[in-house]
Amino acid sequence: MIISMRSHSSKEEIEHVCDRIREFGYKVHTIVGEERVVIGAVGVGDVTACLESLQAIPAVESAVRISAPYKFVSKEFKKERSRIRLNGVEIGGGEFVVMAGPCSVESEKQIMETAQAVAAAGAKILRGGAFKPRTSPYDFQGLELEGLKLLAKAREATGLAIITEVMSDRDVGMVAEYADVMQVGARNMQNFALLKTLGKCGRAVLLKRGMSSTLNELLMSAEYITAHGNPNVVLCERGIRTFETATRNTCDISSIPVLNELTHLPVVLDPSHATGKRSLVPALSRAGVAIGADGLLVEVHPAPEKALSDGAQSLDFNQFRCMMDDLRPYLELRNPAPAVKRD
Ligand code: PEP
Ligand code: MN
89: number of CA atoms within 13 Å, CB side? Predict the structure, then answer.
């Protein structure tokens, strides 16, 4: 923290501020200028409480923190990029991992057919919501436990890992029995009781950015999960609310390189919720490859016009296969294959 005293503060006022800083556990370094004194506070303590206390002292002109408010998720804490290992898949390890499937698990036929189709097209993880956060209480709320069982069946049949949303800390144990990756939806990014429980769930977590959340807030939510014992967190950009109405959300594509600068955690892109429009999903997916995302979370449905949720943004099987084929050359550009050895 850097604390700037008002000009011509008295010796007593400066000493009072230094005492207060020490009470919070910090060491104090004072720089005396012509007009004002600047105090540097270093060490470990309750930085939020300390700043708030100092900002309430009249002789203090400003008190600001200089280090990031998150620790475990920062690049300073861990230089190398995190690799999240699931059964047979690694997110953040160089391979571009595609997670695909319906918005909601609707029936055995729907999820089994989708699992086969997305696996054949190259997806490594099957998505599907069993607990659905819906704006209207009258909309389809998900099959819950039955949906989880269907996902497990699809994993058995295809070998795909499973990602599915958990909406409440009460359901964490149940969902963890079936899921390989626990998805935290945009609406729950700051459900701190849920985040704390996920710290102890023994499964990887995919944390979606809240629709009105800053990247700092996203990283602080990831910090909750890691600080409570679970380092296996993947971040997901899924678009944010802006004044633009042409797309369902506005894809903050620059969040991916920004996050890659700030954190060692893998970052994936959800082009489906970011746009709300099936026709825009392939273009955004290419952007995700080009800009350094570690993978995609894409909605795919056997018959989008019959989907119980998010049909307009879901690709059908053929569209998904075409998109995956189209992405291949871009992926090769990103990870050039070793040059062929000539004699
Ligand atoms: C979803 O993935 O189906 C979903 C509800 O996403 P979000 O939380 O990003 O709206
Ligand atoms: Mn959806």
Answer: 22
